[in-house]
Amino acid sequence: MSRQPPVPTGLARLPVVPLLVALLVLHCALHLRYLDLPPSGFHAWRQTQVLSIARNFHEESMNLLEPRVDSRGARSGITGLEFPLPYYLTAVGYRLFGFQDRVHRVVQLLFSLVAILGCYRLGRRLFGAPHWGLAAAAMLVLDPLFGYYSFVAIPDVPMIGFVFLGFAALLDWAKSARARDAAAAAAALSVAALFKLSAAALWPAAALILFEGLRRADARRRALAILSVSLGLLPVAAWYLWARHLSEAHQNWDFLLGTKFPYPLAIVPGIVRKVLLQWLPEVYDSYPQFALVVIGLASVRSTGPRLLGPVLIACALGLVAYGSTILPMLGMHDYFMTPVLLPLVLLVTVGLHRLASSPSRAATAVLVALVAAAAVVGPWRALSRFERAHLDPDLASMEARLPALIPDRSALVIAASDASPSIYLYSMHRKGWSATAEVSAAEFATMVAEGARYLVSDSRALEARADVCPRLVPAGSVGKFKVFRLADPAAPAAASPPAPPPASAAARAPSARGRETAR
User: Fold this and answer.
1) Does residue 496 belong to any structural domain of this protein?
2) Are residues 441 and 377 in the same domain?
């Protein structure tokens, strides 16, 4: 850790604290336009999944240990997933301010501020000067992956924020060998893994820095550090064992709690090509920042701190091992690779330093051009996702219009055709099943037998199927969605009650007691 990059004269004159505050304000200001945007757009299925948990905490039970989803069939909806503290805090916000979309946006934004401050602290510790911490934090704010998911209800940005804090504390430990720094690092990295187990992809790099401190520490401090790490792993292991128990006990597997092994090897080249050639420079980074990453890679040995090279290699190995276990998901879901933000931000910062410390005017021009381009391209890439995130108008009006057709809110529904487990049900504010037009006759019959009372469908193909149509009794429509009561086609039709005998005018006039009861 002895070799630290110097701070260029111009950068050293900048007031760090006011600029850091301005960076936090800028990050919030970039997102304010979308404060009331409902969950929609990229990975709306994942957003509505976790927001159904927040809403069910609010409406059903605030028991943190029993999160519930809407896609529950006739069961309780209790399911296993990552530690749901962000969703629980959203539920607390609902209780304080009422159910509104801005609540979950603000909760995510607050977690993103933790990530920016954690990145600042990590950059400051690693590069030995607050100005490089500020540079690292600025590059994080301008990263498109961070810019989008810092305002979307999934746990990846809360996770990466505590990863930054944990690595900063580890660097303190490596320098001072103080047991309290090891304890702070273990606590932060444990919280990160509780929020999302993908944080474990960076554990090899964390272990390397931990070992650096162990070499310097005396026996007592080594023992305390190892104890802190062991205690930090216990809640992570305990929670995910509990989560798997919940999924098994309540037969709800909406969340991935395992690997994707085995998968066809034939898919590997295409996904690797997509991740490395398309998403790495375009989504995980912006193209201007990726140019800085390349410059940083070429400059690590000459410019970066001594420990940075081994840490980056450990990050790469951990990410490859992690990516190998869930490879099919990487071709569809960019947020699975949020841990890559840590090495990318560090490399970008090294690239910035390499250009800033060069006496060449050409290097200065390249630096100015890349930073200016990153300041435009990164936020544009992130915010354009929100611009395109428009909920289907019929789906958006569903919750308000559906009670006229399904007055009983406890009635279980089948939402079709929804390939996700959550988007339609969340928008309807109902519980039940998600189904597609390809649902088998046996599966559909089972849903009805288990208590499904209504079908809400925008699939004409499903409604016309010979094994489905006889069960459908039209109840109305909401735009393109048709609502049907579900009947058993084998059950005899209910006989119409006999017509009552004609009543006299006197008999038809209600008594005073009757009028009072009617009121």
Assistant:
1) no
2) no
Whether 32 and 166 map to the same domain: the answer is yes
Q: Closest Cα partner for 479 from 419, 396, 411?
A: 396
Report d(CA 320, CA 314) in Å as an integer. Answer: 10
DSSP state of 390: -
User: What is the residue whose two structure tokens read 């190998």?
Assistant: 324
CA distances (Å), origin 32, targets 25, 105, 511:
11, 9, 60
Q: For the chain, give the longest Cα–Cα distance.
A: 106
Q: How many domains does the chain fold into?
A: 2
In a domain, 518, yes or no: no
Q: Which contiguous run of DSSP H or E holds residue 482?
A: strand 481-486
Is residue 514 in a domain? no
Rg (CA), the chain: 28
| C-alpha dihedral, 245 to 251 to 257 to 258, nearest 10° | 100
Query: Would you say residue 491 lies in a domain?
Result: no
Residue 186 and residue 232 in contact, taking contact as beta carbons nearer than 8 Å: yes
Residue 175 belongs to domain spanning? 9-387
190 vs 199: CA distance, rounded Å? 9
Summarised one tens digit per residue, pLDDT across range 195-221 is 999 999 999 999 999 999 999 899 999
Residue 305, pLDDT > 50, answer yes
- Shared-domain flag, residues 310 and 447: no
CA–CA gap between residue 249 and residue 79 (Å, rounded)? 9
Quote the pLDDT of residue 297.
Answer: 96
CA–CA dist 411, 279 (Å, integer): 43
Strand-strand pairing, 452-457 and 472-478: unpaired
Closest CA to 348 of 201, 45, 56, 140: 140
Residue 221 has phi, psi (to 5 degrees) of -70, -35
User: What's the residue count for the chain?
Assistant: 519
Strands 472-478 and 432-435: unpaired
339-381 pLDDT, tens per residue?
A: 999 999 999 999 999 998 888 899 999 999 999 999 999 999 9
What DSSP string describes 26-92?
HHHHHHGGGTTPPS-STTHHHHHHHHHHHHHHHHT---TTS-B-SB-TTS--B---S--HHHHHHHH
Residues 364 and 288 in one domain: yes
| pTM of the predicted protein model | 0.91
- Sheet hosting strand 412-416, strand order edge to edge: 432-435, 412-416, 452-457, 481-486, 472-478
> Measured between alpha carbons, how far is 487 from 473 in angstroms, rounded to an integer?
7
Are 49 and 175 contained in the same domain? Answer: yes
Amino acid code (one letter) for 409: R
Mean per-residue pLDDT over the chain, rounded: 91
148 and 75: one domain? yes
Could you tell me if 361 and 421 lie in one domain? no
Residue type, 286: S
